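Quick one:
INPUT:
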């Protein structure tokens, strides 16, 4: 491995699928980058892209003012950074975690004299550096100013607030929306298979309707934000009817009906609570009531 002697713009710890994509995106756009990975062989393909490979975490951290971490989780991040001198550094955590983990790492890094920026990547590795990659960050504004240039090579980067947990909270909320939608899609794919049609056509249709679905979700978010659920274009009861219909189709086609069964039961709770004529976003009131019973916020 090459050793690092000059100061680079940023160091990146972690060259898994995501870390390698981040490094490649920044290096190929001319950013001077030092990298380190536990399994050193993963750094080799990046050398041709112009990165410098550090022999240790301590050397990688010493090499640059900005230290970006993208490993499996926060526990691994903390274990790595224990070995380094962080005073005066800007630490950017891009591994996925909870808001509480972000707050704890922010306090830990700050106590060691670092400026801390938490981040979340809304992309898969092949999208990094392209128009569909979004990076959300939160924490120290000074840390954001120091890291914005290199992060901008990896995706559209946004600062979402000073609370260190803000980016992780938005990330988990997006993941909830994404995987909820994917489970619905997988049921839709079985439905299409049961009707002896091609699932590729469903994929094309979903991509074409994605902006309209995004707009529906944006309107739902406005409803929840303002607490307005009256006079909806489509009521919560209509959502229940759709899920009930899917359940009927699943029985007719003899396919698994777990997803429509779960969704119909959720909307039924909204109808039972008296919100059938309101906007589907009124489901938030059902979920809040359930949280209150458990003593949560
Ligand atoms: N892949 C995605 O689509 C995606 C999307 C958004 C966010 N992310 C987030 O990005 C982070 C990395 O994901 P990935 O896809 O790159 O995962 P990955 O391919 O499994 O790579 C994991 C990385 O973490 C390192 N690592 C794990 N435990 C370690 C430890 N104890 N000490 C040192 N290094 C350790 C691994 O090192 P070795 O190479 O030595 O094993 C490797 O570099 C995760 O938090 C993930 O949630 C991923």
């Amino acid at each position: 491995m090459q050793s690092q002697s000059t100061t680079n713009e940023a160091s990146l710890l972690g060259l898994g699928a995501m870390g390698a994509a981040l490094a490649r995106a920044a290096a190929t756009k001319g950013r001077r980058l030092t990298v380190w990975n536990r399994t050193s062989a993963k750094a080799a393909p990046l050398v041709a892209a112009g990165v410098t490979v550090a022999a240790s975490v301590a050397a990688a951290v010493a090499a640059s003012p900005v230290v970006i971490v993208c490993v499996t989780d926060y526990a691994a991040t903390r274990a790595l950074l224990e070995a380094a001198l962080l005073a005066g550094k800007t630490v950017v955590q891009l591994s996925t975690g909870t808001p509480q983990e972000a707050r704890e790492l922010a306090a830990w890094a700050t106590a060691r004299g670092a400026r801390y920026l938490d981040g979340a990547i809304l992309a898969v590795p092949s999208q990094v550096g392209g128009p569909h990659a979004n990076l959300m960050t939160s924490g120290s504004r000074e840390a954001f100013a120091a890291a914005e240039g290199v992060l901008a090579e990896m995706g559209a980067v946004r600062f979402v607030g000073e609370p260190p947990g803000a980016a992780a909270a938005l990330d988990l909320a997006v993941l909830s929306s994404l995987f909820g939608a994917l489970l619905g899609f997988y049921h839709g794919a079985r439905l299409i298979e049961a009707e002896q049609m091609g699932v590729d056509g469903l994929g094309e249709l979903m991509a074409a309707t994605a902006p309209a679905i995004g707009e529906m979700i944006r309107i739902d978010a406005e409803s929840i934000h303002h607490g307005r659920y009256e006079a909806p274009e489509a009521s919560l009861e209509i959502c229940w009817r759709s899920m009930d219909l899917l359940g009927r189709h699943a029985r007719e086609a003899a396919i698994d009906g777990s997803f429509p069964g779960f969704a119909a039961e959720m909307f039924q709770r909204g109808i039972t609570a008296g919100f059938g004529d309101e906007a589907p976003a009124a489901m938030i009131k059902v979920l809040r009531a359930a949280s209150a019973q458990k003593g949560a916020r």
